[in-house]
Amino acid sequence: MESNHFDVIVAGAGISGITSAAAAASRGLRVALVSTGPGTFVLGAGCVEVQEMDRGTPSLEEAINFFRNLTDLAGCGFLGGIGETHYIPTILGSFQTVSLAPFYMWNGEPSESSQVAVVGIKGLSSFDCNFVAERLAYYTTKLGWGSTYVARDIELSTESGTVPGTLQFGNRYDRDLHFREELRDALKPIAAKANVVILPGILGLRSGQSEIEWLQKELGCLLCELPTLPPSIPGMRLFNRLEARLRKVGVEFFTGFPIRQLQIEDGRCKAVLLETPARPLRLSSETLILATGPFSGKLLGAYSAGVNRDLHPVNAAGEVLANNVFAAGAILRNSGARGGNAMAILTGYISGMLAAGVGVQYAQR
Amino acid sequence: MEKTRVVIIGGGATGAGILWDLSLRGIPAILLEQRDLANGATGRCHGLLHSGGRYVVKDAEAAKECVAENKIIKHIAPHCVHDTGGLFVQCRQDDPKFFEQWFESCKQIDLPTERLSAEQALELEPNLPTDILGAFTCPDAHVDVFQLTLSNIESAVARGAQFKTYCQVQAIEIDNGEVKGVRYRDTLTGAEDSIACEIVINAGGGWAQQVAELAGVEVPVRCDKGTLLVLNHRLAKRVINRCRKPGDADILVPAGPVCILGTSSITVPGPEGLTVTQEEIQHLLNLGAELVPALAEARVLRIFSGVRPLYVPPSASGAGGREISRGFALLDHEALQHVRGFISIVGGKVTTYRLMAKAVCDLVSSKLGVDVACTTGQTLLRAAHDVAALRKAHKLLPLPVVEKADKRLGPNLAKIVSAIEARPELAEVVCECELVTRAELEFVLGNETSIPAKTIGDVGRRTRLGFGPCQGTFCGYKAMLAGFQTHRWNAAEASEQFEDYLDERWKGQSWINQGKQVEQLYLSHDLFGVAYNFHDREGR
Questions:
Q1: pLDDT tens readout for residues B482-513
Q2: Where are the domains of chain A?
Q3: In CATH, what is the architecture of A5-73+240-355?
Q4: pTM of the full predicted structure?
Q5: Which residues of B touch A126 (CB under 8 A)?
Q6: Among A113, A107, A71, A68, CA closest to A88
Q7: What is the distance of C-alpha B201 from the center of its chain?
Q8: CB contact under 8 A, B534 and A230
Q9: Residue of B519, B527, B534 lying closest to A94 (CB–CB)
Q10: In angstroms, what separates the C-alpha of B397 from chain A's closest C-alpha?
Q11: Could you tell me which CATH number the domain at A107-229 has?
Q12: B60 touches chain A (CB under 8 A)
């Protein structure tokens, strides 16, 4: 086998690209994932909102189950399901409605009896626990829930000469057992008087379920992490866990290089040229999945009119631009597709399956 | 009810200049502004301190005023001026007769200029088209219009003057043909109050007509919209003008880390609710690219419009926007309409704000029988900075941060320095484009400054926070939290502030339909709309 020839090249490592690569790999294909970085994972936490989509969308349930299974295996399990509407707090003290979320965010939903402590960290200027607690209390009252909120600040040591930052705390949570214990000890007196503790996202860039559950058990209460302004530590953690999982099942990563050009000849994409140092790296494949986000339509030149039922990009006349290319994720925004991460998972899953020759149809909404 | 001698309506450069001039003459005055200082035409222009070259061929009087004021502003407000110099570029497609006419006219009014060959010009400004025929130099400069306005207010306040922002005048009280005072409403709190005074000065700019109506007189002002584009690099070191009859998009002004291209000239019904069309943007970019070809590929950060409040003398009511003089008019409504104590100042431009203020204050002085001459032309607008504080600042902050903070804060830098000494975490740079520290942010939001910020937009006008590529997506959030932490707002008010701020920042980017800034805007929409479910792009 040629070293640079793949069954599938997936372009883009956001939630749709990852799902698509995992789906194709699950069918035994040789998959390359090319990307410039972790996509939109740096912005959020991967929460999935199904509300904007029709729950009866073909393959939606199958795709979501696939994704849940993938995150479980990656040690970054999601809770919830298609039919659920769950309220998760944000750093602006508002509530975001989601159907599925990583377990470390799921616990933030208010309930009749919850006593919630919002915890800030001294010197971490991009998160203000007083502001968040005051706003959450306001919305909770407005929506008729019974939760109460208090704000507490804790102090954590910083590495000498550095300013407190979520990246620094996240890194230390991963590698420094003393830091974890320091955090536990600082939270303990607060957790004693609360049944939910909300804190800014700092619990590791690579940590898995067990590392976070450890803290939860030690504190004896539920934890809820809020992604701060980008980069979002929970989002990067999810990406790192999923990447590790994908590597394990054989997906090969080409990270850090933008696509220079798609070689399209006779209605087929023959190869992808990456902008690597010195000279472009040429990767060829049987199929290409473009999950490159909402601003990448120009890669296909004439792409403007969206996709057909098989997720092939088409031009304004409805003609397929390349019959071995599929589009997935936010690139479909241009054709009016809605649904955020749910749509990304759905189209990522379907494109991966189509690349593997499994007949799944995308019914565009 | 408060009492003073003079009330000034309008907090642009002109109103602020009048407040300062009156304070130097010892005349008590209060300035009322319906929004924030420098929110109208003052804050929505190129920030070009004209050398006079722009008007020299067509309007020698306006050009002469610029020649004199250019020198004066550079002398009295060096902290507001970036003395870049300027070029008038001879483009191959333009009329060579105009070039010579321009050069001759400059000589006649002593506008200092030098003739450059194409090679010399390209050496100075490599981004000019390679086929230019040559260029002329001139003393154009960039002026920070926000700082200029704020410095006038700050200095006036130090001499006992007062000002109120977000206070809209509801009525001008006139009794027996004589001004008695004004009634105003605080638009943030809804409170109403009155001020008794002898003289009311209408420095309302684009709103001058509405203000005049409150006194029952007519002031013919033509609102002439100019649209400007902010680009994310300095594509030129100097102000670049096209040497031809003034037209659209023929001035590019380097302004700090960005540069500003403009303008259009379109008559609009009034100063509010300005919109921009795609055709207008494309028209400006196409013309701009003839002057600086790199503009065709440049990233547009933001698009904004302002209105030139052009004074239309009754004899010239048929003229179009570019034909009306950029000169100003002082209207004494006592002589004109027998309304004693009401004065309007209209037309003009930022470069001549001081001269306009002087004309007003000379008239006010004679009416009030105050025999003190104008000294704004010699008096420095701001006290020298504190050398010891500056030395300390260099130890606490990186050099580029100190340089910017020193320019913006002057003597107040000492307060920032002592705040950081007491709480080192305040050295954090909150706005990375304009290098605004947390200390400066807290200072402008606090009560130690005489010109406190009441909104996040005000913070931007004080510090330039949010003026760079992120357009407030990250630093606006931090400014909101700072306002909450310094107790300027409670959590609910802070949220509302941030929503208003996002609307305003998003609006200026919404006209842009391609390139990196569209991605930036989507990021902001998705973050605050989808991810945080905080504020939707549709607005409220």
A1: 999 999 999 999 999 999 999 999 998 988 88
A2: 5-73+240-355, 107-229
A3: 3-Layer(bba) Sandwich (3.50)
A4: 0.91
A5: 477-478, 481
A6: A107
A7: 20
A8: no
A9: B534
A10: 14
A11: 3.40.50
A12: no
